[in-house]
Amino acid sequence: MSEKIDAIVTASSPVPTSIKLEAGARTARGSLILTFAATVDGELLTMTGDEGLFSLEISGGRLDGFTKTKDQVRHIDAEDTLGLDDGTLHTLGITVDDFGTHVFVDGYEAFTTSLDVWTEQLEVEDISIDPAGIFDIRKFTIYNSPLTSHAQVAEAVAPEPFVEFAAAELSQRDARRCGGLTRGALRARIRARGVGQGGTIIAAQGSNGRLELELTAGGIQYTVFEGVSQEKPIASVFGAGHFDDGGWHDVILTSGRGALVLYVDGYQIGQAPGAAFFDQIGDISRVTVGMNLEGSRLFGEAQTAAIYSTVLSDHQVKRLAGVAPLETQTLFDTGLKGSASYRIPSLLTLESGVVLAGADQRVSIANDSPNDINFVLRRSLDGGKTFEDVQTLITYPGEGRLGASVIDSVLVQDKQTGRVLVLIDHFPGGIGQPNCAVGTGYTVDGLQELHDRAGNHYVRQADGRVETQDGESTDFEVDQEGNVTENGKPRGNIYLAYGVDKNESLFTARTSYLQMIYSDDDGATWSDPIDITSQVKADWMRFFGTSPGNGIQLANGRILIPVYYNHEEGITFSCAVIYTDDGGKTWHLGESPNDNRELFGEKIHSRNLTDDRGSLHESALVEGSDGSVHVYMRNQHPSGRVAHSVSQDHGETWGPVDYVEQLTEIFSQPNCIRITLDPVTAQKRGVDSAIVFANASRMLPFRGCGVLRLSFDDGKTWPHNKVFNPRHYVYQCMAQLPDGDIALLWERETQGLFLTRLPIAWLTESRSTIS
Predict the structure, then answer these.
(1) Do 695 and 735 have their domain in common?
(2) Which parts pass through the membrane (predicted)?
């Protein structure tokens, strides 16, 4: 029987600015609800105790703050909660449970941290609410136990419409009132009578133009026409999809903050820059619903419709549509273990059902290499519900920009043996992809090359002895961690940057390396790093590294890892795969799709590529149903689409490169996996599996709009597309959990890595065909 959730403190308008919380009312877990309206920035809520505090403010119209104990701090940077200063009622919800602190805005999760302290741990005594008296506080409640995400939705106030439709046309008075709206939203709940049928949802006539929201056979269209002829559109947005299926759909158009955005059933389906609303078309004389201005009716029904005077947020749209909330937990967030940042997700479900999640731990600064970066991992033994504490698997000496690093992990399992492999880039101190040197750092015999600051060159033998290039013995020795001794005395570390250690002597080549670790017990323990650079990197390459996320094992047992590299000029890039047929003992580099490729009438090759429009960067691999291998590639091509190629020989060579029209590309890492379908879906579709593709699909101008897409025909078509997060979203990695759900490990770039569980039905219910 579930624990009864009671209110410890509750207050309605007028809510006092200061509340005392007695010791007996403090709890280790709980929730908070605050309903407010704001028009300016300011402090919203602060809970203060002897052991720390929890504070939130409105800054720039969004939510910001922190939770702080004596030894830990988490920044609550809810950067996507725009419009909290629009003067309308909003609901703030906080829940602290065993997974961390969850911040809800208007019913839906807006931010999450791993720090799980509440009023008991903080020893909260004083709660300050709107101390400056600048907000309209309507309700404040603290609960003794965590509210569920569904309860948070139920507690959230829905936005109030400016005007509602009670007939097919607004009254003249209400129509005139709409003329003053410079921004806002249109909403209608509609259905078509059948496939191919549609028509006007909402239309308005003004003295200087008209606007129309329409259902078409191919999607939803909003257009604003201005001028006497009213034929030239000044702004429009289109969301492709099959919404003429006879079912009910909640359609919302928002105009404001520089953009037009379309939503169907609570999820974004289209976005275009350039806002335009009622004020753009002059004095309003008519506003219709379910028919156009000439009286031609929608081939279907508009059940309800309304106009809003504010730009509804993504969370408010979901609240109106009654969207079921998704469960998210933080696996690696800024501040965890004292680190400045975590980035670059890798994720894998093992044959045993154990789930592994990996990340870059960027210790002192958030940058890519050169930086002090460790590889860390968390394991789940219950199918992704909970995760063990962080394991630090690979670490190198040095700090900040002079620290040695590992970066961009790839996880894969050899299903024949159960061995789990991690491949990851390695850089010595002060070196990263932009400034690494040409070469492998190894001799033709596979021995590590070393040098000193005077320009003398050495070779490290397998047992740690150091010889000159000519094979003469020296007094130097190097241990497994790279520590150098000379006649037993410390002489620095070969991986450090120049000038860091006063006893420095020998250094590795200042280039990029590829390393591997492995586990034979489902990730509980791991081997030491094994450098495989000399097996796969050519001596003309400057950078050579993984495309982070997941590798794949083909039906024939071959393991493929996506990689990319550049050559001496260091500017253009080409992707490829490295492969092993013996479980990781030996590795081989395949050709690149850029090798002997025709680009704009010219033959190019990865060895001498100079046209950046042909660059192929990070990539993702999936095996086709016919045994072919598909690669989807980040690129700089002017098409603005994800590049794609197919291999018929298990990744050794590639066919022509094409650009997938439906997969938009903003120069950000893609990910794709093959999933097993549930029996009902499999029978309906006539296939047992499908491909899920995910990437950040829009520049906003930051990288964002994370979209998942589903294909039943090896990527020929993508009939189901859904926007997971319409704003900040960068890298991601997916895995199918033992219960069939999709686990999405994703990043907001600066705040950390978050795991969200997505039922396959969440994706298949989407009618959107492009986003």
Answers:
(1) yes
(2) none
Question: Is the peptide bond prior to 14 cis by the omega test (within 30 degrees of 0)?
Answer: yes
Consecutive H or E run containing 753: strand 752-758
pLDDT in tens, 172-187: 999 999 999 999 999 9
**CA neighbor of 413 nearest in space, from 354, 482, 337, 465:** 354
Unique residue bearing structure tokens 């794709």: 672
Domain that holds residue 476: 450-508
Last residue in a domain, options 108, 137, 155: 155
Residue-by-residue DSSP string for 701-726: SSEEEEEEEEESSTTS---EEEEEEE
How far apart, in Å, are the Cα atoms of 339 and each of 72, 321, 379, 415?
Answer: 11, 39, 19, 34
Mean pLDDT of 671-693: 95
Query: Based on the domain organization, do 396 and 413 belong to the same domain?
Result: yes
Cβ-contact 244, 195 below 8 angstroms: yes
Cβ partners under 8 Å of residue 345, min gap 6: 357, 358, 359, 548, 549, 731, 732, 733, 745, 746, 747, 753
**Do 405 and 486 sit in the same domain of this protein?**
no
Tell me how far apart the alpha carbons of residues 754 and 748 are, in angstroms, rounded to a whole number. Answer: 8
Residues 181, 76 within the same domain? no
Q: Which of 724, 666, 768, 668 is nearest to 80 (CA)?
A: 724
C-alpha to C-alpha distance for 705 and 660, rounded to whole angstroms: 18
In a domain, residue 445? The reply is no
Q: What's the residue count for the chain?
A: 771
User: Does residue 535 share a domain with residue 613?
Assistant: yes
Give the tens place of pLDDT for each residue, 502-550: 999 999 999 999 999 999 999 999 999 999 999 999 999 999 999 999 9
- pLDDT, tens digit, for every residue of 440-458? 999 999 999 999 999 999 9
Determine the pLDDT at residue 268. 98
Question: Which of 490, 508, 526 is a domain's end point?
Answer: 508
528 & 424 share domain:
yes
Residue 251: pLDDT band (50, 70, 90) is: very high
Q: For residue 419, give every residue at least 6 positions away whose Cβ sits within 8 Å of its Cβ, in sequence order, or none.
A: 413, 518, 519, 520, 583, 584
Cis omega (within 30 of 0) for bond into 370: yes
Instruction: Give domain status of residue 770, yes or no.
Output: no
Tell me how far apart the 2 most distant CA atoms of the chain are, in Å.
Answer: 97
